[in-house]
Amino acid sequence: MKKQTTNRDSLEILASGKGWLAVDKPAGISVHNDPGKDLCALATNRLRTDADLKDITGLGDRDRLGAAHRLDRETSGVILLAAHKSVLSHFAAQFENRKCDKYYTAILNGRLPAGTGPDGWVIWNWPLTKTAGGRKNPRGKGPRKESTTLVRVLNHSDHYTLVECKLLTGRKHQIRRHAKLAGHPVVGDRRYGSKRALDFLMHKHAFKRLGLHAARLEIQLPDGSPVVIRSQALPGEMQRLFTGDGQSTGFNTTHILMDF
């Protein structure tokens, strides 16, 4: 496995190996529902123009990358891509069967109390529907299934709480819906957050994105070896919002993703 860096105008390649690569998805880009402009298309174009990446992955001009899992358009962070069906199926099966671990960093509205247990985790365990909910009914309409999110407080500012989240189930918008049910919606969430909070973010901080970032992925490679793939830094917009919001407790958000 090899990690590559890119310039600021290209996709950030976090890791790569035979038949696959992991990228740091920017917020605001669809994974695979915007032909020619989505993440899979951008990564495929990058592959076709990068001789070193072709050599590392063993992929060529005729290969098209697909995503082994999903992130909402509004969410940034680690996402795993592959071209060959066998490699894609290998990764996708781990997501489907919950054999990999996904960690997120989020900024929540308000002051979420820290967990009192030795590991600091708080358990959010509200059942959710398979499909998305809404601001007035985040649980969703219809049959609901068990949904569990672990949340650990990392820092507080005057108005916000910086948290680490670990998904134990995979419902649509799970972190966002659970955060709403906990009374601390993810900042910038236009679907589940309040209009008043969104207006405050826009006019006070010029903050226009969702404050949710896929920070780390732990998964098994096709050769059986485990790998940890990390985003390199908390996105700049999230850093500026949190560190600019009064006094935090001294946690260095620039390096937060490396400290989990």
Class by SSE composition: alpha+beta
Oligomer: single chain
- Roughly what is the average pLDDT, rounded to an integer? 90
Sketch the major β-sheet. 10 strands, mixed
Radius of gyration: 18 Å
What count of helical segments does DSSP give? 6
Unreliable segments of 5+ consecutive residues: 2-9, 250-260
In helices, the fraction of residues equals 10-25%
What is the number of beta strands? Answer: 12
Order of helices and strands: EEHHEEHEEEEEEHHEEH
Indicate the CATH architecture of the domain at 100-219: 2-Layer Sandwich
- State the name of the first-level CATH class of the domain at 100-219: Alpha Beta
CATH topology of the domain at 100-219: Pseudouridine synthase
CATH superfamily of the domain at 100-219: Pseudouridine synthase
Shape: globular
Strand content: 25-35%
End-to-end separation in angstroms reads: 21 Å
Describe the protein's architecture and organization.
This protein has 260 residues and is α+β, with helices and mostly antiparallel strands. The protein is built from six helices and twelve strands. It has helices at residues 39-48, 51-57, 85-96, 174-181, 195-205, 236-243, and strands at 12-17, 20-25, 66-67, 76-82, 101-109, 121-124, 128-129, 144-145, 149-156, 160-167, 212-220, 226-230. The strands form two sheets. Strands 1, 2, 3, 4, 5, 6, 9, 10, 11 and 12 form a ten-stranded mixed beta sheet that branches. A hairpin with a 3-residue loop joins β9 and β10. The longest helix has 12 residues, at 85-96. The protein is globular, with a radius of gyration of 18 Å. The two termini are 21 Å apart. Residues 2-9 and 250-260 have low confidence and may be disordered.
